[in-house]
Amino acid sequence: MSTMNLFVMASMPILKVLLITAIGSFLALDRVNILGENARKHLNKVVFFVFGPALVASNLAKAVTFETFLTLWFMPINIFITYLIGSITWVDTCQSYKSSKAFQRPNNRIMFCSFSDCGVLIGSLGKLPIIIVPAMCNEKGSPFGAVDVCHSYAMAYASLSMALNGIFIWSYTYNIIRISSKEIVEEVDQTSPNREPLLPSQNSQTPLSSKLQQFLTTFPRKINFKAFLAPSAIGVIIGFMIGMISPLRNLLIGNDAPLHVVQDSAYMLGDAAIPAITLILGANLLPGLKGSQIQVRTIICIAVVRYILLPLLGLVIVRGAVHVGILHVDPLFQFILLLQYALPPAMSIRTMTQVFGSGQSEYSVILLWTYGLAAVSLTLWSTFFLWLVVS
């Protein structure tokens, strides 16, 4: 396929996302107020507890067998690497910023480290693969083969990506923000007029290696493992069980299956997840228009690492794994793995900032800029990734 055809194929799903996102933003306007704050919370709960698990379980059950299961082992490792890179960037960025004079102001400490740590944002992955990748299968001249087969596997791969990312977000990112928020509040209390200021050794002079070692030592003790029992994680388990256990598969999957109505009902619920997620995305971006005191350097830092450095590292990791033979050469699977390195941050982090009551407006601005830039960067990276995996 020509580069122009690949560019058109990559841009069409992005344009669809932008249109539905715009509708979500419109519905969230004060004068419309269909997707106001309370409505978003309720709809998000329905997606989290009903639509999302149904989407994950139904698509994995249909596409995954014991043989295909053995080929998916690299995806959790791939997602883990993105979080690992983000964590390293988080520690390094905070360390360099804490040595600056701007950080010494309490408001800046809260603004930068309690919610918008670059690592938290860089490591997290948005849910766009579940929207973008299946849509590419429906485009004319798709390089991923027959539409039905492509769509089935695209939904399975993207559903697994969404579920695994959800586990990482609510077990890792959530606890990072919780711990960071608590520490920043304590630090601000110590530097208030009624407290003695922190010593330099406690503040800006701590070596990066010591901070990383302290983080790796204390974090596992503070982590909340309940996230591993999140609805999407349970959906993954159910989907794998049905797909890999032949009696269950024969009972539920296929038009001739005795209980195919259960699978069909799960598909119907799962189909509602994609438009609901996209509408919520648009509604959550709207508060970013109100602005905040977030520094431009923070947004630039996130954008550069998220949309330039991380995709390049992902390219080396994924193609290197293919080259040495530890990853199969399925173009669709490779494309999703590569795409994971070029995604904007997860929208769920805004919910987490609401839980801890800080950084909501600032993170909304970051979301607005990162998702706005993603419309361009995702199109360009998707075009390049398509050319790479099909050439």
From TrEMBL:
InterPro entries registered for this protein in UniProt: Mem_transp_PIN-like, PILS1/3/4/5/7
User: Transmembrane region positions?
Assistant: 6-30, 73-91, 112-133, 153-172, 227-246, 266-286, 298-318, 364-390
Record keyword RNA-binding present: no
The UniProt entry, under Pfam families, shows:
Mem_trans
Domain of life according to the entry: Eukaryota
In UniProt terms, what function does this protein have? Involved in cellular auxin homeostasis by regulating auxin metabolism. Regulates intracellular auxin accumulation at the endoplasmic reticulum and thus auxin availability for nuclear auxin signaling.
This protein is called Uncharacterized protein
What is the organism field in this record?
Chenopodium quinoa (Quinoa)
